[in-house]
Amino acid sequence: MKYFILFVTLLTATFFAHPLLAGSVIDRIHSSQTLVVGTPGDSPPFSVTTSSGKLIGMDIDIVKNLAAMMKVNIRFERMEFAKLIPALQEGKIDLAVSGITMSPERNMQVAFIGPYAVSGQSLLGKRSLMEGITDLKQLGDARLKIAALKGTTSEAIADKIPKATITRTDTLDQSLMLLLAGKVDALLADYPFCKVTEFRYPDRGIVMFDKPLTFEPLGIAVAGDDALFINLLTNYLSIMTGSGTLKQLQNYWFKSNKWIKNLPDVEFFKDMERVD
Predict the structure, then answer these.
(1) Residue 273: pLDDT band by 50, 70, 90 thresholds?
(2) Exposed, middle or buried, 226 (CB in 10 Å: 0-12/13-18/19+)?
(3) How far is CA 134 from CA 29, 119, 124, 129, 209, in A?
(4) Which residues contact 96 (CB under 8 A, 6 or more apart)?
(5) Which range scores top for mean pLDDT: 70-84, 158-172, 197-211?
């Protein structure tokens, strides 16, 4: 994509002229000449896996462009969402992306750079259920079966729904497979994920509640012990925003459906998935 290129000279001057001392992350990147990124690869339009196994998404474009500007290679480590923060804390990855909400609880464990986008939670469920809901307070009296991804704000919201039976999954694909198979009545997930899924499966009798349930700023997660790396990322996002590149990426991944044809049918993976 043409808009994927920024001004290298400006970035280089901004990133490396700052007097902050490099920490363990920068040292690790310098040593390996590789930026290691953790992501699940199952949360469109932020990070998702194509039919050919390639990672695509707005988050993927952002970090690929970052690596190019830093003049280092990039390696993706795919892992469950709940394992991203522990992996950062243990130094197994340099940063994590997957439409991650910048919550105070998480911010007490890792640093966040952003927000680079805003999202919110939504409910995706059987048409017969959703068409009768005008107010989500109605869910409080229903004995629903709801799927939610472990370690997310979705799980926290699901836990507050009285009388609901919650199935906690390791991946969003698992949550979706349960819904498509009729094993749960609905799933809670990011609004963009629900919107993309509704578009992908128009004939499966699932629809979403059309208003986000929460306001959630999204950020890039990093370990908090490298001031220079945090400064570098902060400057990088500022330049992405000021140059208009971030807005172009948002328009492509949120308002275009051209990329959706590259995604596999989630039920292809049903025999390989496990739900606790």
Answers:
(1) very low
(2) buried
(3) 51, 21, 14, 11, 9
(4) 37, 38, 39, 84, 85, 87, 88, 110, 220, 221, 222
(5) 70-84
Cis bond upstream, residue 44 (ω within 30): no
2-119+217-269 shares its CATH topology with 121-208: yes
Q: Classify domain 121-208 at the CATH topology level.
A: D-Maltodextrin-Binding Protein; domain 2 (3.40.190)
Look at residue 232 and tell me whether its pLDDT is greater than 80: yes
Tell me the helices (H) and strands (E) count for the chain, helix number first.
11, 13
Burial (CB count within 10 angstroms: exposed 0-12, middle 13-18, buried 19+), residue 131? exposed
Coil, helix or strand for 59?
helix
pLDDT of residue 15: 45
Instruction: Name the strands in the sheet holding 42-43, side by side, starting at the edge strand that comes first in the sequence.
Output: 42-43, 47-49, 55-56
**Greatest Cα-to-Cα distance within the chain, rounded to the nearest angstrom:** 60
- Band of residue 141 on the pLDDT scale cut at 50, 70, 90: low
Closest CA to 139 of 152, 123, 150: 123
Q: What is residue 18's predicted lDDT score, i.e. its pLDDT?
A: 46
201 vs 1, which has greater pLDDT? 201
Domain boundaries, the chain: 2-119+217-269, 121-208
pTM across the whole model: 0.85
Q: Classify domain 2-119+217-269 by CATH architecture.
A: 3-Layer(aba) Sandwich (3.40)
Neighbours of 261 (CB within 10 A): 9
Tell which residue, 98, 268, 263, has the closest CA to residue 177. Answer: 268
Per-residue pLDDT at 53: 92
